Amino acid sequence: MPANTPRGFPYPLYTDLANPTAQIGAFATAVDTDVQAQANRISSALNYPSVRISATANQSIAISTDTYCTFATEDYDNDSMANLGVNNDRITFTTAGIYLISAEVNFVNNLNATTNGRAVVLVSSTLNEIAWNSLRGTTAADTEETLPYLHQATAGEFLRVRVRHNSGAAVNISARSLSATRVA
Amino acid sequence: MATTTPNRLYPYPNAAGDPNRIPADLQALAEAIDTDVCQLLLGVVGRPVARVRGTGVFQSQSAAGIGGNTINRVPWDTIDFDPFGLLELQDQTPGQRLIRITQPGYYMAFASVQIPTFTTAGVTVNYLRWQLRQGLSSSPATLATRLSGHSNNIPTNADDGNVKILTTAAGAFFNGTTHSYSVEFQAVTSPNTPSYPINERTLTIMRMTQS
Lengths: 184, 211
Known about the structure:
The structure holds 2 protein chains of 2 kinds.
Chain A: E1 3-4, E2 10-11, H1 20-46, E3 50-55, E4 59-61, E5 67-68, E6 73-77, E7 91-92, E8 97-107, E9 117-124, E10 128-136, E11 143-153, E12 158-165, E13 171-182
Chain B: E1 2-4, E2 11-13, H1 22-41, E3 49-54, E4 58-59, E5 78-81, E6 87-89, E7 99-101, E8 105-116, E9 124-136, E10 145-152, E11 163-174, E12 179-190, E13 197-198, E14 201-207
Antiparallel strand pairs in B: 1-2, 3-5, 3-14, 4-13, 6-7, 7-12, 8-11, 8-14, 9-10, 9-12
């Protein structure tokens, strides 16, 4: 009866009947299976789940109203996190892990004298608001915000970008994107 | 007569093997495993990362450049680290200033800049913007696609310690041939005044996938 190393590689004992070709074959096959598993693991580590969705067309945001950003383009998605045809406002994590996230929104200036604030919030389906940023708007120039965040995600959880402003009139958002990449 | 394992193709004798060849068969198997494991370990070298820095003072253009003008691109001069050879600085003359990415994959990038107080008398700063874009090395003077950006409408002042730091970040796919980063700085002042000087800026990238 052959014995096994801690990794499961078989080797004959002195009490075993000598059958070198079969015993070498069993050893080779066990090493093959183990090394292939490590190769798969390395490949996965070098190709972690990553996604980017974006849009450029204007989306109107009413005064003092929480509004989720919508997206139009799946720029990259190697883990089926985006399905804009079904839900155009989110990414859904299909693999649990820790993700580096970056949301970006450009508020177009509306030339209204009342500028006030522009807020960007990352909203999780399980934890609600997880990160936010706000800036004072300006009358004659856009306001652009980047919101980076490290998030521990569960499979099935989805993430959206919510915006809000309290300018004196509706404000459009133009270029916007949501990126996420697993780091652990 | 040797056969091979299904995945890694290690050779081993089949049932009709010559018992007198056992040492040679074992040597062939051991060497095949050795070569394969060594090759595999070359891929276990940590996450490919790199950082490039611009150290010289860059002066902004007039507000006419706002909204996308390659003349807003900031120059780069120092690669702090790039152990995997991800970065290639392109022509750093005004209007070009791209950083080509040499290996394909999805990259997460962070771009930061230090913005000091604007000291020109009689000028009010209304707006500062820092943007990360993706351009093409094959067409270096063409406007690049915006990946992300961050702006600020409050001038740098003593409340900031006289230096404001803007950071923007984005993930995006790069094809490993022509796709390149460009980073832009823009300032709007009243009256319209070019030459807002900025100091050190960095672009840090992490390669997250291989295709």
